[in-house]
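Lecture 7 notes: from sequence to structure.
We start with the chain below.
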Amino acid sequence: MMNTITTTDFNFPGQKSVYRGKVRDVYNINDELLVMVATDRLSAFDVVLPKGIPYKGQILNQIATKFMRLTEDIVPNWLIDTPDPNVAVGHLCEPFKVEMVIRGYLSGHAAREYAAGKRVLCGVELPEGMKENDRFTSPIITPTTKADNGEHDADISRADIITKGIVSEEEYTILEKYTRALFEKGTEIAASRGLILVDTKYEFGKTKDGKIVLIDEIHTPDSSRYFYADGYEQRQNSGEQQKQLSKEFVRQWLIANGFQGKEGQQIPEMTDEYIESVSERYIELYENIIGEKFGKADANDIHSRIDKNVKNFLSK
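Predicted structure tokens for the same chain:
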């Protein structure tokens, strides 16, 4: 198998601390900068799977940073530069403890909840008579709590977020405004690539001077679901599954093999063939979402490459 990066143990100049997320490891530099390393870890159902996916970190990092550049005119973000294919460097921010999930269609988690009989999701009323992958009249925001590593994110309503003091009403209004603006822009860009942006999540934080900015990732296949626009209506009318670009294919494989992240369930074996097929799917996702050929970075010694590139950047 090709080389992957699944753990990091860098020691950068001025390093204060390290936070390890499900996929990204974030290094605090002098309480001023964050160096975010996108690893090749694969997570689903809030569980990190045992093997890495070649080029996944590079793909996620490059999609996210390209979309940050494409949307910085409508919503400010944390990004400063990308000194390595797997690395983004930005301003240190204090993250809000919610993930802003926005849905244009009844898909994924929302569809599973709807099929179970729920008609209110995160305080939002859902109309009767919908079927999976139907379009909502207008996009709905269904936030989740931001869980610590190993914990499950939980659905939460706008009212509860404000009542519990997780985010103030004034700031939450800004988060909603930014979420809708980003989703609208993402929808336009997706349409220009022959895709439908079905749903996505955004994370926000505050800079030291109190400015609310977009952080983490944006419009990647890990945080978003895309359908192919061509044939969407016909597939919907005939009850066929939609052709989609997202990490959902990994979730479906896990479900088919008896795993949904619940206690006592075993993660199915990830063969080399399966891992390679997932890598190829991520490359396909990149090329369709970005609209250009994916260029594989040198993966011979990813750790040394990142270490050198980040230290060169910080020395400047």
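Points to note: Helices lie at 56-71, 108-115, 158-163, 169-192, 232-238, 248-256, 272-290, 302-315. The longest helix spans residues 169-192.
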